[in-house]
Design goal:
single chain; alpha/beta; Rossmann fold; 6 strands; 42% helix; globular; P-loop_NTPase; ParA family protein; DNA_Partitioning_ATPase; CobQ/CobB/MinD/ParA_Nub-bd_dom
Length: 255
């Protein structure tokens, strides 16, 4: 029987490397799937490195080797009785087709599909896939090159001619990531005013920088932050303001 449930297509997308799109995809996917009761699918389109798929393999090994994580995984499975969200390897140009195929064959219809795309718009299939997203979230950091590159790409992307196969109701949001608490707020204010002039929506929550973003479960003995098999622990979510980000994300997407 055909289901009428709408599946949201979401991408954390940026033209600059190292600003956290794959990390954000993993953190959001894990919180939504394991803690908030949504069903998630992740399309790892970052060919050829497929960093999210490789991360899943490392996470599996870690859980088997670390008692803390093994207990957390057992407890999680007993509590939610739910499998890990699938991560499907693909190329950008076949991502939509593969996601649709999975959705039609799966017993559990995903509420959200995250597309982790390559960081360069000229990679085959990136722009056509981005045009089909319901929401695009672009992380920016207080670095002139990152801001200029992101704003330039965002304006160009939004200025592309509308096509029948695009998503007319698509929303694109910028957000501050890796915010250093010691940085002068004047810097952010200056960038904010430029973003406002360009009429681009920006999220209120600013994600604080933390060395935990660069750490996976394998080099942390007794806490969980970035993992594809377990959600980040609440106190770490709070310290980085990821908890507030998730709340705002849910409001924007109406999940």
């Amino acid at each position: 029987m055909e289901t009428t449930k709408k599946t949201l297509k979401i991408s954390f997308s940026t033209q600059k490397g190292g600003v956290g799109k794959s990390t954000m995809t993993t953190l959001l996917a894990s919180v939504l799937h394991y803690r908030l009761g949504f069903n998630v699918l992740v399309m790892d389109c970052d060919f050829p490195q497929h960093s999210l798929n490789n991360m899943r393999e490392r996470d599996k090994r870690t859980i088997m080797q670390n008692d803390y994580h093994k207990k957390a995984a057992m407890k999680q499975f007993q509590t939610i009785n739910k499998k890990a969200y699938p991560i499907i390897k693909c190329k950008a140009e076949t991502a939509l087709e593969k996601a649709s195929e999975y959705r039609s064959q799966s017993a559990v219809v995903p509420d959200v599909i995250f597309f982790d795309l390559p960081g360069t718009a000229n990679t085959k299939g990136v722009l056509t896939t981005l045009k089909k997203m319901d929401f695009i979230f672009s992380p920016i950091t207080a670095d002139r090159l990152v801001v200029e590159s992101t704003l330039g790409f965002t304006k160009a992307f939004l200025g592309l001619p509308k096509t029948d196969d695009g998503n007319m109701e698509q929303e694109m949001w910028l957000f501050w990531n890796q915010v250093d608490g010691r940085e002068k707020t004047g810097l952010y204010d200056a960038y904010q005013s430029v973003i406002k002039e360009l009429n681009l929506p920006i999220m209120e929550t600013r994600i604080m920088d933390s060395k935990r973003f660069r750490k996976e479960t394998d080099d942390t003995g007794s806490y969980v932050f970035r993992s594809s098999l377990l959600p980040a622990e609440p106190q770490l979510m709070k310290a980085t303001k990821m908890d507030l980000f998730v709340e705002e994300f849910l409001k924007i997407t109406h999940l």
